[in-house]
Amino acid sequence: MSGWRQERAVRDARIEAGRAHASGKVVAAEHAVALLEAILRPGDRVCLEGDNQKQADCLARALSGCDPSRIHDLHMVQSGIVLPEHLDIFEQGIARRLDYSYSGPQGGRIARMLYGGQIELGAVHTYLELFARYFVDLTPNVALIAGVSADREGNLYTGPNTEDTPTVVEATAFKNGVVVAQVNEIVERVPRVDIPGDRIDFVVEADQPFYVEPLFTRDPAAMTETQILMAMMAIKGIYAEYGIRRLNHGIGFGTAAIELLLPTYAERLGLKGQIATHWALNPHPTLIPAIESGWVKQVHCFGSEVGMDRYIRERSDIFFTGVDGSLRSNRAFCQTAGLYACDLFIGSTLQIDLNGHSSTVTQNRVAGFGGAPNMGSDPHGRRHPSDTWMKAGREAQVTGDPALMRGRKLVVQIVETFGEGLAPAFVERLDALELARKIGLELAPVMVYADDVTHIVTEEGIANLLLCRTADEREQAIRGVAGYTEIGRGRDRAMVESLRQRGIVRRPEDLGIEPLDADRSLLAARSIKDLVHWSGGLYEPPAKFRNW
Amino acid sequence: MESLTFRHTTQKALPGAKAQAITGVVASGNLEVLLERALPASECTVEIETPIRGYGEVWAAVVADFVARAQPGGLRITVNDGGARPDTVSLRLLQGARLMEV
């Protein structure tokens, strides 16, 4: 064997072993376990595709069905720990080491397993970081991915939920790895080629369609007056003042309320065309009224959203779509767009401390990061100006020669002062620190660091942290919007009043907003059914949201 | 259950002539507020029944801010709490006062 092509030889041997269970590239679902046992080697780095949306669930079940005496000590390198099988394989001894980024629904179990030493953790990454490491030192030996359909040559149609697939395949296929795709059906001709067939080694016809989580659907019926008030303040006190056109929203109710106030409240303020025109965003159903009212020019998506496919197909002026007419999403590109091309990120969190560090970690759950730390950060590599970015840069403390000033991305936290079960959103010390100590993490899982946050919006007001000049001012600005939490009640009232005079803390009345006007009648849609009407019947909500 | 009563002195009577109003609903995370014009113009009382114990200081702060802001002289206010968050309590009290001003 020549010394410089050993990886290729190993790959050829894996493919050869796998062929015994395939007809050409096609493998029946009942032979999936045998296929994986043939192509995997102990200690392999494996990407089992799954993120916060679509899941290669058939292949996950197959991996968990492998014989641990043959397949063991795998190093899993994947976006999401979402399905029970993703953790079962660690209990079974099939996998040992883990590098990942998001673990929403498995957050409690993964914390227990980390604590119990059942998982050897590399690190919790953001999506972009993990993707980056796929090309440097975490390149998968085997990728197990999900698509809608494939032909017998392996040409793959991912459908609207393209998500991570092109990135995972790029890293694996071009570095001597083996790529196995599960598809809902084998077809004569795919509607469009999302991944060319020569990058796919085996195609497994799944026993059932892959699972997709409707993570981005917020029911307007559950939206409260408090959330509407916060949305009004964000629109008038931030979107209008900075003229924010290019943006990304988190998935909470506060930002969904902003989306629903664009065609009503923001329209009355005369802001149409001035704000919220270009988006890096999943196809949120709550954005439909703004799109239909002509507010939105363009949206690029990380993934799709259950029920939005027909609507997107009929709105190709707004969304990125393929020759087949359906959405083309791409997580890596959209994350990059959110990082470098957006002037604002606004999202919710669970805990904020007195410096402004925030975290979604609670003592017993490791939810991971997903993309929020990238969206919610000021990228120091940005080199193009915009009015919004430059205005924020001028507000921040300029040190040195003003001619060398850089702009700032706006990173806004929108939180209610008390969350579920009266848990305060403002704390002396983040639970993330205690968790890091307990499970021995070198780096505490902070979602957004204090030096990236520019504004905090609560029902009590807006704190503009860009304008704070001392640590003391910063702490009092945060206390000044922390409501009736212990942190809020511990404020220096005189100092908060002086910050208010300087516009660092702003109350609803300072913005010309009457809290009693924050009424559900302001929402462009007050139910999922209203969203269906706005869409002309094109939006098809999943069953759990059909409550009429 | 915990019962709390707060008595405040106000500088003036709440404007309007409405004798009584009710706002909110008894539901989890919400509350019902009954307001009656039943006291001298310089007084306001707020009586609270809440299922969650131990939040006396927070209630005291919410009620004090409400009285300072709305000057609800003459009102006897009864709150039937369903575990509402302080911001919701504050909003309902202000909504109630506005209803009485009609």
TrEMBL record, chain A:
SUPFAM superfamilies: NagB/RpiA/CoA transferase-like (SSF100950). Pfam families: Mal_decarbox_Al. This is Malonate decarboxylase subunit alpha. It comes from Methylobacterium radiotolerans.
TrEMBL record, chain B:
The keyword Phosphoprotein applies. Signal peptide: none annotated. It is found in: Cytoplasm. Keywords: Cytoplasm, Phosphoprotein. HAMAP family: Malonate_deCO2ase_dsu (MF_00710). This is Malonate decarboxylase acyl carrier protein. It comes from Methylobacterium radiotolerans.
